[in-house]
Design a protein that fits this description.
121 residues; mainly alpha; two-stranded antiparallel sheet; 6 helices; 2 strands; elongated
Length: 121
């Protein structure tokens, strides 16, 4: 009886943890908070973006910086990657490290829309 109770408790705990992980994955990108910072229009202007704000594109580019930060865990990396509306050398380096260079044309188009000018990436 005691053994069955422990197994049931473990199964419920595992189910709860899995539910929390799935929920955080589904809600994370749409919540507007990544690494404790907001993806709202204000943060768009804070990193010197002067083009057209598109929350979806902004979140995707920011995700590249977040992934790069998660890879190296260097506190300043996320900010440096986003600097000057994703046109910094750090952003370019993150694309290389994350093996995303083959999609560079797509990222340049997105950055051009957000930056308001042709990116130097």
């Amino acid at each position: 009886m005691q053994m069955q109770r422990q197994q049931l408790t473990r199964a419920l705990t595992c189910s709860l943890l899995i539910s929390i992980m799935i929920t955080s994955l589904l809600v994370g990108p749409t919540s507007g908070l990544v690494l404790g910072h907001s993806l709202n229009k204000r943060s768009f202007f804070e990193i010197q973006c002067k083009g057209v704000y598109d929350k979806s594109i902004f979140a995707r580019l920011d995700r590249i910086c977040e992934d790069c930060y998660n890879l190296f865990l260097e506190p300043q990396l996320h900010t440096l990657c986003r600097n000057n509306c994703f046109t910094s050398d750090y952003f370019k380096s993150c694309l290389e490290v994350l093996l995303l260079k083959d999609e560079m044309e797509k990222y340049q188009t997105w950055i051009k829309q957000l930056h308001g000018a042709s990116p130097g990436v």
